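Hi support team,

I'm filing this because I wasn't sure whether my run with adenosine monophosphate finished correctly. The job status page said complete, but I'd like someone to confirm that the output block is well-formed before I use it downstream. Pasting the exact inputs I used:
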Amino acid sequence: MDDPVIPAWASLIRDVADFPSPGIMFKDIAPLLADADGLAAMLSALAAPWRDAGIEAVAGTESRGFILGAALACQLGAGFVPLRKPGKLPGLLLDEAYALEYGSDRLQMQADALPAGTRVLLVDDVLATGGTLAAAARLLQRQGARVAGAAVLIELVELRGRQRWECAAPLQSLLRL
Ligand code: AMP
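And here is everything the job wrote out:
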């Protein structure tokens, strides 16, 4: 198979060793977000597979999923819904726990965030072990939304997070590293 073509903007993603804890190679997208041409090219590539997919809302996970998700929603003519860490959202909430490498975490969304049956695209910056994205999909399904798929900027292939994606809907990643 041919090597995939690496887009020019990918060089704006910085590897930071041992952040936020020892042994983690953090993918820092801040330099990419700060570059006008790189940001525009990356967003257009992230949106491309979904332009004719009838996406009505984009849901992003806290916190870099908010940055990518809101921008992507504008590209797709869709609304945006934040999936947040506990204690941030008011009103009646749905809550989903998920396992981390050490311990667990939770995501919440507002129960009335979307009309039932809304076609939603999930977005995050990095797919690592896959727990966050899988929990986000479960949360949306419990809320009554239809998960149309997931778009991530970077898939860390060795961590095999894709195996935890239980939806029939496609999971698209732009960079497989
Ligand atoms: P996971 O649930 O293990 O797939 O982790 C995905 C979430 O953690 C995403 O919201 C990412 O922003 C963050 N994350 C995990 N690993 C990294 C990494 N190496 N660099 C940057 N962000 C990461």
